[in-house]
Amino acid sequence: MTLLFVVLIGRIYWVQVVKGDFWYDKAKTRWAAEEKLVAKRGTITDRDGNMLAMDSVAYDIAVNPDMIHKLNIADEVAAGLHTLLGKPEADLLKIVTAQKDGKYYQQREIHEEGWRIDKELADKVVKFRQELYDKYKTKDVGIYLFEDQKRYYPRHSMASQLLGYVTKEGQAASGIESFYNDKLKGEDGELKYEKDGKRVQLAEGQVEYKPAKDGQDIALTIDMDIQNYVEKALEDINDKYHPKSITAIAADPNTMDILAMANYPTFDPNTYWDMSYENAYNHSIKSLYEPGSTFKIVTLAAAVQEGIFNPNATYKSGAISVPGAPVKDINKVGWGTITYLEGLKRSSNVAFVKLGWEQLGGVKLMDYINRFGFGQKTGIELGGEAAGAINVNLSIPSDIARASFGQGKVQVTAMQQVAAVAAVANGGKLMEPHIVKQIYDPNTKTTVKTQPKVVRQVISQEASKKVGEYLEQVVSDQEIGTGRNAYIEGYRVAGKTGTAQKVINGKYSQDKFVVSFIGYAPVEKPKIVLYIVVDEPNDPKAGGGAVAAPAFKDIVYKSLKHLGVAPDINVTENGKKEVTVSVPKLASLTVSQAKTQLKSRGLNVEVVGGGTKVIQQVPASGASVHPAQKVYLITEQRDKLKIPDMTGISLRDALEIASVLDIRVTVKGEGYVVSQKQVTKNGERLVELTLSPQTDAVNDGTASSDSEGATDKADDQKVETANTQ
């Protein structure tokens, strides 16, 4: 007995003392529980906060082969899930009858088709399961759904190549999702605690908590409405010409904020597994093109800056002898002796060879090409951007000659073209393009905004203005201007067509072309620059003026309306008359119906309140207003309303809105509202309005008027303080 106790005590000493730490760690491992705290991936929105990408609830389907075997319903379950999920029935049958060592599994997941499905499909699975419950009088038929998360793109194919996508495994692929993955994905946290045998947390146990850091939210510079205009126009081009691909980029030339970026064909990132590689390719920054005649804008700008371009000087069109290979105009025989301005309007190759090769010279021409940013990445916040290729040999005359009109050893990206033409439009400043407006970090509550960045001054402001006036005539001349199909009544539009032969097996094809149009508007104060590239339309005789210019017109017209840019005053036989639009009756309509009616008339709309129906409208129905005027839809009672932005409207309309909202207004100046400030005095809301004359407002693109404005304006504008109660 003594020996037994000696052995027992020795063993206890060995376990408790010598190996105490080892067994204590083992015990802690058995006590310990760990939970992963999944970080929420950041959202992606457009410039106005409209959601483009977000995390959404999803569901995973799993089956219990053991339970299904006991109920003898394997064939029925496999057939039902096949109908709902589209997964082959044979594959499903293997899953629902899966065994190991002769024993049926307790749980097997259904990948890929049953993994991270949306609620609509999950509801159908629940309904199928309920039918089995009722049929077999049981509450467990071996079909389970588990809540999960997935990346969801509520606009489906909109801007899909720009956004990219996230796989079901959580891997970011292409676009913004990939380029900003480190910021978007966040950092998972964890919770470690001690539990008892029933997995209940011990009250006195140790707890380690590391909170999850949610991903950062990214607001893009794109405008969802303009993006929609662009994508719809590209669909129309595709329906008519069935090209290999179409690319379009719209930007604000003053900041180089990208307002829209689209490619066609496209894909839905929610079902990325169904796409082809070509549909996910972002041609805007990756594809290289010989730009063709749109590149003549660079040569023109250089010639104007150097004082070489004389619009009234003449030359012999048709053909020009260049060592190595002569250059011909598109009609080969030319138009006889014409001015250089007419040569620009007709897109004469000979005119630009004479400007670029003969007068500027290779060294100076190449300097301007480089200064406009070609042959180098623009720096936009997207992965995979190509730098382009400018391989002009200055010792070979034909290289220089062809570069002057965008052919030969010149390959550019669409983004480079947009940045270069934006520099021509904005006063000569080459700007770095941006696709990200701001990034918000929910963990630190901080926002980082992207600021416009000037790369360099390429041409002078005076030269920029002259080039704009010349390019405007390419569009406005309805007889010989190659860009005449881009003309928009009421707006000054500058632009240039492009038709470039494709190189097939080392030779220029006679029936395969890349056609394009690039331009900006309004010429006097540019708000948008747009480039459309169509690769291989099915009509070899259709150039950029026929294929791309009409789409340009449609997009730019709608965009200028959307941006609140007023058209110029039309001149009639009776003198000057302002363009007006009649406001329809909107009361009692739903907000959606009212918006549709206003958009069909090209009018801007602002919804005041959170209701679903229009209670009141300003201006009233039947009023004749300027096309840039905002129409306010009042959807709630006055005590619930917020004060809307009244910039650009007449004092009469501002006072009417104030009356609806039951607020007092003070007025400084005369004309139209240019700014407003809300203050509270003695518990009462008060809005201070600053006005300026109509001519200033029109120049700023914010003016509006109604049919009564001319008659009653003088009396209205004398008001200093108005109590609208």
Roughly how many Å apart are the termini?
A: 105 Å
Please give the number of β-strands.
38
CATH topology-level fold name of the largest domain:
Beta-lactamase
Q: What number is the mean pLDDT? A: 86
How much helix is in the residues? 25-40%
CATH superfamily (homologous) name of the largest domain: DD-peptidase/beta-lactamase superfamily
Shape: globular
List the domain count as a whole number: 4
| CATH level 1 class label of the largest domain | Alpha Beta
Percentage beta strand? 25-35%
Structural class, from secondary structure content? alpha+beta
Oligomer: single chain
Which architecture of the largest domain does the CATH hierarchy give at level 2?
Answer: 3-Layer(aba) Sandwich
Total DSSP helices: 24
> What is the gyration radius calculated from CA atoms?
34 Å
- Most strands sheet: 7 strands, mixed
pLDDT < 50 runs, ≥5 residues = 570-576, 694-725
